[in-house]
Each structure stands twice: as structure tokens, then as C-alpha cells.
Amino acid sequence: xxxxxxxxGAGKHQGERTLSSAAEKGVExxxxxxxxxxxxxxLVMVVMILAMLLASVGLSxxxxxxxxxxxxxxxxxxxxxxxAMLLVMAGMAxxxxxxxxxxxxxxxxxxxxxxxxxxxxxYALAGVENLILSIGSPMRSFAAFFVFLLCMAAVGIxxxxxxxxxxxxxxxxxxxxxxxxxxxxVIASSLIFGMVHITNAV
Length: 202
Description:
Structural class: mainly alpha
Order of helices and strands: HHHHHHH
Radius of gyration: 22 Å
Number of helices: 7
Distance between the termini: 67 Å
Shape: globular
Helix content: over 70%
Number of strands: 0
């Protein structure tokens, strides 16, 4: 039969099968992370690193094609990379069925923030002084400082989603019924976090 005689419902059925297959894979991923949360956590970390590498490679290619982009500044170029990683990790949360990490639990956001408020203020003041007042700082203009804030916010949110939301959350969901399980989720996620950031100390 010619193209004009094709079943109009074939495309619809194909789309339904694709959605069904994606749903089945999503269920399998949720079962896997529930059974092997630490391994799943390491895989999440690997996905984050791969997303960062791919975004960085894409940015490098773009700079070769349009070298004038380099004039935008270091943080303006880093921001798209960080936003790409943020989107990938948010997608991972959806695939793993962990959208609950985006809702505030426990005492609430503001009450949970109070114990760390003093340290946050000290770090913020130190950062502002270092970035604005230091000689030769690239942060002298307000626009550059605003881009820097956006970039650092994207970094922080991505790491919170990845390590405290996904990795610690998966381990806690399986072992958090006991105090030892709570400690395991904290220590294991902290070790994985340290593995990723160990190069910062080298």
C-alpha cells in the first residue's frame, strides 16, 4: 500500500508503546535504587560528572566557532554549564521517582536555615570582600557580580539535589528506619561528595 493508505492510528500506537516502555524503565530504575541505593548513588554521581564534561566540551566547541564569546567573562561562560547540570540532575530526580526532594520537609526551610545563618553570613561577607575589593578582581561591575551569584547558586542547587536530595535520600529511604541507618546515609553521601571534590584540595 502507498503512504496515503497507512493506518492513521499506527503513529498513535507507536507513541503509546514508547511511553509505556519509558514508564517500565522508570519503574525498573526505582526498584534498582530501592534495592541498591549506594550503587545507585554512585551512578548518579557519574551521571553528574558526565553531564559536566559534555557541557564543558560543548562550550569549548562553541568558543572555537564563536571566539568572541570569551569576552563575556569566566562566570558568564560557566553559567550555561552549571544550568545544564542542574537540568540533568532535576531530570534524574524525576526518573528515579524522587520528586519529593523538591518539597520542604521537617521543620521547614527557614527554621532549618537558622542554625547555619551565622556561618552563611560570614561566608557571604568574606566572599563579597574577596571578589569586589581584591586587586584585579573580575567582579568589579554589578552585572559580573550578578552573573557570579547566579553561577554559584546553580552550583549549590545542583550539588544539593545530587548529594543531599538523591544520594542521601536513596540511602535514607532504605536504611533510615534506625539511627544507624540515618548515620549511614549521612556518612555515605558525605564520602561520595568528598570523592567528587577531592581534586579541589590537590
